[in-house]
């Protein structure tokens, strides 16, 4: 190792010029070669301005007493101590690279280029505050420690290899990027950008000033960090299990919060401050809150064991909510030991809340001795049967709600109102009599299309309604359809002038194998409220065979406004499968054995309520049952019908079984399936279709 001094060689100011170097401060220049790695460099009060004109290196460099300009035109790599002087001037945009354990003294200077920590498992001790206008980089092979002092990163922070230590990094500009972990504390004091995914460990993150840009970024938190970000927001955050996050201010996330980001375990938030986020995924274990957690969008719990919430837990609707709908996805049971508030006060009747699987169970509350879930505001609440276990849980609905009744008891502090509320069996009353159209005959005549599955012409039922209708049912008298030929039939109700009819409802029925058919009633529940006064009302039908014998159909309705509390809706009924057909079901291997499930709807486009089942079971004197299931694998949620096929020729239809009250346990995206079982084994055949309404009504 040689000691070398930078002198005035009289030719240029370049580091690479041998004529500018001396072996002692007292000896004139040009008695040695320029400094390289292995040399200790002194640039002092007698040294002229110096330009790092090409990539250069040394073991250490000391600028004590230097008052001229040092220019980084190219990078300078130092494998030891760096001492800058208060009286010197630094210029140039190239970088200073430090590669080995040493003390770095700033002298109050600003590096106009960048600063790179490129060593492997080295410890850098900072003296004073280092201000770096270029990018501050950690790009060594392994973990480096940076202690003491401070660094102001005006040009950004690139963490490509892990950093730890006590030095505080203050970000005033540029971009923080790189997926390697930084344990040092970070302060935001300007408008820097967080880019992509960065990893933060056990330091303190502080906001001092400015508006950092966080769009599209994610912070992975892998240790026990402290958060003091009252003046700024972060975007996404993923928190590891077995950590304690300390809040000294509220924490606002514009995106998603994931916790604990690992196997089923536990993590906690210390400090009585609020956390808000657009969505939240909790992968398992116990999450403990000292303050509140508020989620403006969806909550997903895809864990494999139970999750426990300890503390106040809130879900509120907001602009981040997709289509105004929130979903709580519970892969397994969840225990809440505090008070959970689901608040939709700002969205009136426009958003929904769905538990898709799993259950909520209470385990202690400071108010009632059981956990409390408060659902405020006005919303559509869909809870599949069995999916909300209310044992030890008080569920309070604080506004006007529409919901499918789950297993358990609901504590209602609001009122169930509006046309979308499913009434209990037996509820509702009318204050007018039932009317028929046509009034006197057995019905209007409809000639089926000879092409199976094709619609007939529209046939006028009423030229102009005197008042608005609430359609209650159709009465159907089938035409001959063949001694051994069944007929699956769709009948549509249309409103509008001839040639411009618009379908407002659809009914389905089934007649089997005889000339001697019985009239059948096709009920409509809830009542159809889609026929205004002055409407031309027409009917048409389609069926799955080619017989063209005339069918007779008439309608029964209530006049508006003479109905007081019966439920009604303008939504048309829909059928699955479509096209005047039934889906063939498998049958069980033994008497009363369940068949396998057959899917009728792979994924519901909206929340739906099933209002009727159309179907049959073949073989004489056989009793049948159908189950309706939801999900994959399907879970049975209703057994809407039990019937006997007697093979009697006088009453063979319409094989429609109303589901009352309508079964509304199918949130958007649900798979809907049917299975069957029968009292005998041989010569059996079964098929069915579903009649449903899309929600909200």
Summarize it.
By secondary structure, the protein is an all-beta fold.
Description:
It contains no helices and 69 strands. It has 697 residues and is mostly beta strands. Strand 65 (622-630) and strand 66 form a beta hairpin. It starts with a strand and ends with a strand. Residues 303-428 have low confidence and may be disordered.
SS field, number of helical segments: 0
Rounded to an integer, what's the Rg over CA atoms? Answer: 38 Å
The amount of helix comes to under 10%
- Mean pLDDT across residues: 78
Number of strands: 69
Strand content range: over 45%
Low-pLDDT regions: 303-428
Molecular shape: rod-shaped
How far apart lie the N and C ends? 86 Å
Strands, helices and their partners?
Elements (H helix, E strand, L loop, with lengths): L1 E5 L14 E2 L16 E4 L7 E3 L3 E3 L1 E3 L6 E4 L3 E3 L3 E2 L5 E4 L3 E3 L3 E4 L4 E2 L3 E3 L5 E5 L1 E4 L3 E3 L5 E4 L2 E4 L2 E4 L3 E2 L3 E4 L3 E3 L3 E2 L3 E4 L3 E2 L2 E4 L3 E6 L8 E4 L4 E3 L7 E4 L4 E4 L3 E2 L3 E4 L6 E5 L3 E4 L1 E4 L2 E11 L3 E3 L5 E10 L8 E6 L3 E3 L2 E5 L4 E8 L4 E3 L8 E5 L2 E5 L10 E5 L3 E3 L7 E2 L22 E3 L6 E3 L12 E4 L6 E9 L9 E9 L6 E10 L8 E12 L5 E7 L7 E9 L8 E2 L4 E3 L6 E3 L12 E4 L6 E10 L4 E9 L4 E11 L10 E11 L5 E7 L7 E9 L3
Parallel strand pairs: 1-3, 3-6, 4-7, 5-8, 6-9, 7-10, 8-11, 9-12, 11-14, 12-15, 13-16, 14-17, 15-18, 16-19, 17-20, 18-21, 19-22, 20-23, 22-25, 23-26, 24-27, 25-28, 27-29, 28-30, 29-31, 30-32, 31-34, 32-35, 33-36, 34-37, 35-38, 36-38, 37-39, 38-40, 39-41, 40-42, 40-43, 41-44, 42-45, 43-46, ...
Antiparallel strand pairs: 1-2, 51-59, 52-59, 53-58, 54-57, 54-59, 55-56, 55-58, 61-69, 62-69, 63-68, 64-67, 64-69, 65-66, 65-68
């Amino acid at each position: 190792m040689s000691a070398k001094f930078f002198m005035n060689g009289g030719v240029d100011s370049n580091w690479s010029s041998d004529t500018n170097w001396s072996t002692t401060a007292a000896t004139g220049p040009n008695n040695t070669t320029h400094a390289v790695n292995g040399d200790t460099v002194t640039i002092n009060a007698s040294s002229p301005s110096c330009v790092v004109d090409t990539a250069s290196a040394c073991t250490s460099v000391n600028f004590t007493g230097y008052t001229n300009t040092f220019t980084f035109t190219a990078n300078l790599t130092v494998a030891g101590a760096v001492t800058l002087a208060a009286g010197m001037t630094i210029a140039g945009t190239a970088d200073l690279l430090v590669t080995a354990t040493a003390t770095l003294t700033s002298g109050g200077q600003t590096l106009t280029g960048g600063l790179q920590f490129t060593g492997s498992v080295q410890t850098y001790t900072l003296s004073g505050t280092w201000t770096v206008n270029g990018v501050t980089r950690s790009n060594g092979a392994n973990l480096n420690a940076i202690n003491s002092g401070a660094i102001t990163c005006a040009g950004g922070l690139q963490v490509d290899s892990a950093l730890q230590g006590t030095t505080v990094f203050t970000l005033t500009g540029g971009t923080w990027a790189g997926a390697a972990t930084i344990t040092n504390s970070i302060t935001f004091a300007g408008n820097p950008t967080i880019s992509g995914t960065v990893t933060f460990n056990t330091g303190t993150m502080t906001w001092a000033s400015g508006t950092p840009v966080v769009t599209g970024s994610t912070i992975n938190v892998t240790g026990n960090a402290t958060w003091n970000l009252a003046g700024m927001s972060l975007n996404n955050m993923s928190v590891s299990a077995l950590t304690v996050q300390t809040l000294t201010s509220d924490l606002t996330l514009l995106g998603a919060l994931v916790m604990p980001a690992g196997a089923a375990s536990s993590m906690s938030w210390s400090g009585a401050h609020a956390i808000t986020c657009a969505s939240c995924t909790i992968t398992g274990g116990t999450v403990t809150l000292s303050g509140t957690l508020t989620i403006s969008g969806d909550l997903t719990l895809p864990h494999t064991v139970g999750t426990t919430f300890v503390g106040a837990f809130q879900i509120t609707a907001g602009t981040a909510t997709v289509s105004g709908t929130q979903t709580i996805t519970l892969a397994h049971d969840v225990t809440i030991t505090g008070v959970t508030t689901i608040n939709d006060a700002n969205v009136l009747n426009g958003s929904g809340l769905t538990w898709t699987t799993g259950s909520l169970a209470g385990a202690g509350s400071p108010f009632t001795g059981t956990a409390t879930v408060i659902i405020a505001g006005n919303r559509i609440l869909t809870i599949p049967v069995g999916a909300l276990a209310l044992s030890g849980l008080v569920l309070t609905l604080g506004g006007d709600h529409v919901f499918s009744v789950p297993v358990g008891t609901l504590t209602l502090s609001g009122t169930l109102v509006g046309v979308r509320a499913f009434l209990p069996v037996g509820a509702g009353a009318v204050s007018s009599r039932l009317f028929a159209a046509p009034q006197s005959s057995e019905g209007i005549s409809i000639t089926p299309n000879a092409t199976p599955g094709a619609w007939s012409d529209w046939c006028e039922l009423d030229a102009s309604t005197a008042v608005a209708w609430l359609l209650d049912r159709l009465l159907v008298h089938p035409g001959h359809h063949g001694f051994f030929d069944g007929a699956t039939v769709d009948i549509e109700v249309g409103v509008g002038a001839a040639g411009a009819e618009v379908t407002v409802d659809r009914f389905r029925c089934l007649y089997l194998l005889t000339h001697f058919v019985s009239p059948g009633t096709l009920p409509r529940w809830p009542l159809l409220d889609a026929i205004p006064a002055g409407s031309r009302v027409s009917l048409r039908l389609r069926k799955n065979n080619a017989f063209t014998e005339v069918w007779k159909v008439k309608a029964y309705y209530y006049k508006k406004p003479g109905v007081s509390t019966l439920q009604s809706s303008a939504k048309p009924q829909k059928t699955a499968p479509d096209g005047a057909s039934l889906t063939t079901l498998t049958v069980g291997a033994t008497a009363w054995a369940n068949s396998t499930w057959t899917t009728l709807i792979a994924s519901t486009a909206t929340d739906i309520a099933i209002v009727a089942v159309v179907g049959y079971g073949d073989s004489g004197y056989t009793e049948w049952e159908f189950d309706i299931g939801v999900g994959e694998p399907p879970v049975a949620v209703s057994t809407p019908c039990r019937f006997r096929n007697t093979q009697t020729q006088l009453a063979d239809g319409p094989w429609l079984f109303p589901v009352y009250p309508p079964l509304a346990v199918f949130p958007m995206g649900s798979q809907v399936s049917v299975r069957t079982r029968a009292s005998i084994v041989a010569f059996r055949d079964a098929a069915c279709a579903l009649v449903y309404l899309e929600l909200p009504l």
